[in-house]
Amino acid sequence: MNFKDYIRVIEDFPQPGISFKDITTLLRDGQAYKAVIDELARRLKDKEIDCIAGPEARGFVIGAPLAIALGVGFVPIRKSGKLPGATIEADYALEYGKDKLAMHNDAIAPGQKVLIADDLLATGGTIATSINLVKQLGGEVMGAAFLIELLELNGREKLDGIEVFSLVQY
Ligand code: 5GP
């Protein structure tokens, strides 16, 4: 299956000059969505992973079903102010904007092996911040998995040499 056939590219969203990769057209197709999760699970099944952490909102859409497929737990990474318990926070910069990401301070036990998952790797800012949060909690980051990687933005270079898995590249 060619996943690119299911991804819709919308020019100038959310601002002029951005070529947005819209995955909603893939997600609404049950076979394509399942094929994405199955393929990521196939590539990751031999990795030692205790849990998957994913940033809201599209990191949940990839990370949670992948966690079920691999038989591990899922930990949400959220925008500041959304999690009910005590949190740790870190600043991050997006391809187009700025914010803070947060995790519950007991979400990961020291030494746990964590895979980070999101829909798309652009500049790497979101995942670099996610890695920072997981490491603050004592987690060991085993890799980062994406449906899409935007190669020209060189996001991999921000990820401290962590192994990157991506199914589709632009
Ligand atoms: P980065 O932090 O790597 O620059 O940006 C990646 C984050 O922004 C991801 O969480 C992703 O959901 C979102 N993002 C940025 N550009 C796009 C895009 O073209 N399509 C989608 N689906 N998400 C994007």
UniProtKB/TrEMBL annotation:
Q: State how it assembles.
A: Homodimer.
Q: Identify the NCBIfam families for this entry.
A: apt, PRK02304.1-2, PRK02304.1-3, PRK02304.1-5
EC number(s) of the enzyme? 2.4.2.7
Per the record, the major location class is cytoplasm
Q: Name where it's found.
A: Cytoplasm
Family assignment from sequence similarity: Belongs to the purine/pyrimidine phosphoribosyltransferase family.
Annotated ranges, domain Phosphoribosyltransferase: 28-149
| PANTHER family recorded | ADENINE PHOSPHORIBOSYLTRANSFERASE
Described by its record, this protein's role is as follows:
Catalyzes a salvage reaction resulting in the formation of AMP, that is energically less costly than de novo synthesis.
Name the record gives this protein? Adenine phosphoribosyltransferase
Top EC class, one word = transferase
Q: Which GO terms describe its molecular function?
A: adenine phosphoribosyltransferase activity
